[in-house]
């Protein structure tokens, strides 16, 4: 049975009663008070009422405490156990999550938290609606309204992350799917299949592959293919194991005359299965780096110069083969549904393309790219951007000032530009690099496509000012994943990844609001600043020092104390897990 968390009753053991006026004032100036007022108290618990039975039963644990706990955990890279321990004893953390009785046990157990996460994931799988994304939108919209943040100008960027799965080669993948398929059998059939697949199930896939030479690979692939085909015949068609076996056969093997042979690696698509433990993660190479089993995360944030604070407005998570242009459209549609106005977007060249240009024109959005995909001229020739395109009057102005007229050609999306003074073009010193050709009958003119014009207009918007407006979003991307080790998530699955980044985005916004409000806490004093400076020197020189034994550990613990719950929430990645 769902019940909202009633926080109106003041406890006799609350901070107002237990702390001195000076300590209470410092608590109200700390990050905890900003989190409580700007995030915790804004969480609409009724969004999660769909997870609970309507029948009279035991009431739920406070939802806003559970969600707030998740936001802090994801945003600061804590483990469940470490943060739960802190929740038991740290006054600021308890105050941030609205726990008035400072001497009581936390209002939920870790098992309750795990069940809550599972229900959120299952609801998203069944209904296609991630409740954490709804909370991000609701909390952010209220913050935008309170601080008068304009959303008309925004910047976007995307980044690659890896799912929390083992990196597998093709042979490891096929063996892993076979193991999962056998586990999906009934107990009686499983015993027979364990004997039949002996040699492929006793160890982990990477341990099995370690003992196989390259010359033996083909024979093992053939044997595994035969086992998978036979296994599929006994699996329940509606089960997950059946779907996995079918998928890996379709993607990795080719059926020819009733026989299954391994496909060449070039025929295996980037959207193929990378691990049976995360069926949505895909493969991508970007900037020379391979992401085998991952997702793409796109972030949108405000960038209007008049804003006193810039906030993240939207986050998308998708398989990493998804094009940035598709994520661009999804974000705009999502924000429009929330009533947010977007008129200008600053992004990199990955967001340009015919689909995005058509979408921007339809929705009245001006795109300012830092680069443009395609449309590069041949060497020694001008690009279309050197001409002035007057869309309203259907005119084109060349670099020498001659005005031509745009005329629709016979083929769709093609145009003819006619310049009236052919002689001026014939004697022009720039003719060798110009796009103009001179014909006997039509005179001076150019053939151009609609896409050429779109690319030209985009390239004309590439300015140092536009690049400067876009570049801070790269820092935002880093803040979303600064605590990930080697870009690897602590979760698996797109739904869990979306829950994670929605929570992280709310924490990033919280830090910015706290900084805007000028919040200061005791950790910002001179001793802590001095300790942080020492820590940076120690962290840089540590690799060159010999182990210092117990004294080094003691020093590290003393330094870490300066990082516990700082008002700006920053923490060096080398600091202990107990520090935020």
Structure explained in plain terms:
This protein is of the alpha+beta class. The protein has five domains: 15-148 and 496-516, no CATH class; 153-161 and 285-374 and 464-481, Nucleotidyltransferase, domain 5 (2-Layer Sandwich), CATH 3.30.420; 170-267, no CATH class; 384-454, no CATH class; 522-563, no CATH class. The chain contains 22 helices and 14 strands. The protein has helices at residues 15-18, 21-28, 31-38, 63-76, 80-89, 91-96, 110-127, 131-146, 170-183, 187-196, 205-210, 217-234, 240-252, 324-337, 354-363, 422-426, 450-460, 464-470, 472-481, 494-516, 526-541, 550-560, and strands spanning 153-162, 253-256, 259-262, 282-286, 289-302, 312-319, 344-347, 366-369, 388-390, 395-397, 403-408, 414-418, 437-439, 443-449. Strands 1, 4, 5, 6, 7 and 8 form a six-stranded mixed beta sheet that branches. The protein has a six-stranded antiparallel beta sheet with strand order 9-10-11-12-14-13.
Mean pLDDT over the full residue set? 86
Number of domains: 5
Helix content: 40-55%
Tally of helical segments: 22
Low-pLDDT stretches: 519-528, 546-580
Q: What's the topology here?
A:
Blueprint: H1 15-18, H2 21-28, H3 31-38, H4 63-76, H5 80-89, H6 91-96, H7 110-127, H8 131-146, E1 153-162, H9 170-183, H10 187-196, H11 205-210, H12 217-234, H13 240-252, E2 253-256, E3 259-262, E4 282-286, E5 289-302, E6 312-319, H14 324-337, E7 344-347, H15 354-363, E8 366-369, E9 388-390, E10 395-397, E11 403-408, E12 414-418, H16 422-426, E13 437-439, E14 443-449, H17 450-460, H18 464-470, H19 472-481, H20 494-516, H21 526-541, H22 550-560
Parallel strand pairs: 1-7, 7-8
Antiparallel strand pairs: 1-5, 2-3, 4-5, 5-6, 9-10, 10-11, 11-12, 12-14, 13-14
Helix pairs in contact: 3-20, 4-20, 8-20, 9-12, 9-13, 12-13, 19-20
């Amino acid at each position: 049975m769902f019940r909202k968390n009633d926080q109106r009753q003041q406890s006799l053991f609350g901070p107002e009663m237990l702390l001195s006026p000076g300590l209470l004032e410092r608590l109200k100036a700390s990050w905890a008070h900003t989190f409580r007022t700007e995030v915790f108290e804004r969480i609409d618990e009724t969004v999660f009422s769909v997870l609970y039975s309507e029948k009279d039963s035991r009431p739920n644990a406070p939802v806003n405490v559970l969600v707030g706990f998740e936001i802090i955990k994801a945003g600061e890279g804590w483990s469940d156990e470490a943060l739960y321990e802190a929740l038991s004893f740290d006054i600021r953390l308890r105050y941030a999550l609205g726990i008035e009785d400072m001497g009581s046990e936390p209002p939920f157990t870790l098992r309750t938290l795990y069940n809550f996460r599972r229900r959120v994931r299952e609801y998203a799988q069944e209904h296609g609606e991630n409740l954490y994304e709804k909370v991000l939108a609701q909390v952010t919209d209220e913050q935008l309204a309170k601080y008068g943040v304009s959303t008309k100008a925004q910047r976007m960027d995307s980044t690659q992350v890896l799912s929390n799965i083992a990196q597998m080669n093709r042979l490891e993948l096929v063996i892993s799917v076979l193991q999962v398929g056998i586990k999906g059998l009934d107990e009686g059939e499983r015993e027979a299949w364990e004997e039949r697949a002996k040699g492929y199930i006793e160890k982990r896939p990477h341990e099995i592959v370690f003992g196989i030479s390259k010359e033996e690979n083909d024979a093992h692939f053939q044997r595994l293919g035969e086992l998978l085909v036979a296994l599929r015949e006994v699996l329940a068609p509606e089960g997950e194991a059946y779907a996995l076996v079918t998928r890996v056969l379709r993607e990795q093997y080719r059926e020819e005359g009733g026989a299954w042979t391994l496909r060449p690696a070039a025929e295996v698509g980037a959207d193929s299965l990378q691990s049976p433990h995360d069926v949505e993660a895909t493969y991508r190479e970007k900037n020379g780096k391979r992401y085998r089993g991952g997702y793409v995360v796109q972030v949108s944030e405000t960038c209007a110069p008049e804003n006193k604070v810039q906030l993240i407005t939207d986050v998308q998570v998708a398989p990493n083969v998804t094009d940035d242009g598709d994520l661009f459209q999804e974000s705009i549609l999502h924000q429009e549904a929330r009533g947010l106005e977007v008129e200008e977007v600053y992004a990199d060249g990955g967001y340009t393309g015919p689909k995005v240009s058509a979408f921007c024109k339809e929705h009245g959005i001006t795109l300012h790219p830092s680069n443009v995909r395609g449309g590069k001229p041949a060497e020694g020739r001008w690009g279309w951007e050197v001409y002035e395109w007057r869309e309203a009057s259907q005119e084109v102005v060349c670099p020498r000032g001659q005005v031509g007229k745009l005329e629709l050609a016979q083929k769709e999306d093609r145009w003819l530009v006619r310049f009236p003074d052919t002689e001026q073009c014939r004697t022009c010193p720039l003719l060798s690099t110009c796009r103009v050709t001179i014909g006997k009958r039509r005179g001076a003119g150019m053939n151009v496509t609609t896409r050429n014009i779109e690319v030209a207009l985009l390239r004309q918007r590439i300015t140092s000012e536009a690049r400067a407006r876009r570049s801070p979003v790269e820092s935002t991307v880093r803040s979303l994943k600064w605590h990930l080790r080697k870009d690897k998530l602590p979760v698996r699955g797109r739904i869990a990844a979306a829950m994670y980044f929605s929570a992280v985005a709310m924490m990033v916004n919280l830090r910015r609001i706290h900084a805007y409000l000028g919040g200061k806490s005791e950790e910002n004093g001179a001793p802590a600043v001095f300790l942080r400076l020492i820590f940076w020197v120690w962290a840089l020189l540590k690799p060159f020092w010999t182990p210092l034994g117990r004294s080094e550990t003691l020093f590290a613990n003393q330094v870490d104390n300066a990082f516990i719950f700082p008002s700006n929430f920053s923490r060096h990645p080398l600091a202990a897990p107990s520090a935020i």
